[in-house]
Prior knowledge:
S-adenosyl-L-methionine; 23% strand; 11 helices; 13 strands; nine-stranded mixed beta sheet; metal ion binding; alpha/beta; 4Fe-4S; globular; Organic_radical_activase; Organic_radical-activating; 33% helix
Amino acid sequence: xRTGLISRIQHYSTKDGPGIRSTVFMQQCNLRCQxxxxxxxIRPGFNVFWFKExxxxxxxxxxxxxxxxxxxxxxxxxxNIDRKxxxxxxxxxxxxxxxxxxKVGQEMTSHQLADLLLRDxxxxxxxxxxxTFSGGEPALQAEFVRETALLLKAEGIHVxxxxxxxxxxxxxxxxxxxxxLVSYDFKVFDAETHLSCTGVDNxxxxxxxxxxxxxxxxxxxxxxxxxxxxxxxxxxxxRLDFIRTLGSAVQQVDILEYHIYGIGKYQKLGIPxxxxxxxxxxxxxxxxxxxxxxxxxxxxTIGG
Length: 304
């Protein structure tokens, strides 16, 4: 029985695959996408949110912090946290009398997670939904996710893997074999732009997409459009042209308009949000992308 580290579970989701689903956000990611909406899932261990609005500047955390890593800010502005110096931030979570700190992450065994998810089986069955493993990058905990997926499938639950595909094929393949659907992110086509936007190039990602398609595993292709980052029309067309080469394995292309819903998480983690000043994604552009996708024979939808 394997143990995994889960960031959170979102129940009754309708955006991560067919039907009503439970989305399990796994901890840890090996990409650094500039537009990441789940920054709390990036690092491999537990994380800590700090809520400025809950802070009463009582000084409890200031006194408890190792290496004098937490200091009082100006009145009304809470505290300053040096997360690199604060080696006991997790301990401070339970010390704050005003719940100003919150631990992100929970260890569970595959059986514990499967039992929890099976409580919503009636919703999955009624809506033709299921469970989606997302992140972070769930393939970084491939053995745990695979074991949990097999427990769910034994109970007739549809399982989807949401992955960026940046992982060795010999590790990814057993996980892909265990699920019913792969939701695959196509962030950029040009290798240098992909490196600039995510910290890695995409050669392995594209090769793995071909391998998944060759298995005949159903693929839900996803493209988030981020103004000034990956919205070059020529690159978008190349992404769609590549997706078309994957053939009948591709069930649908979801075109997603970039949003800033995750900006509050960056503030809670003390991380600067680099894209706060970029323009909103224009719906007219995603309509044009959808039109091109349909012209080349792909089924496409626009999401938020």
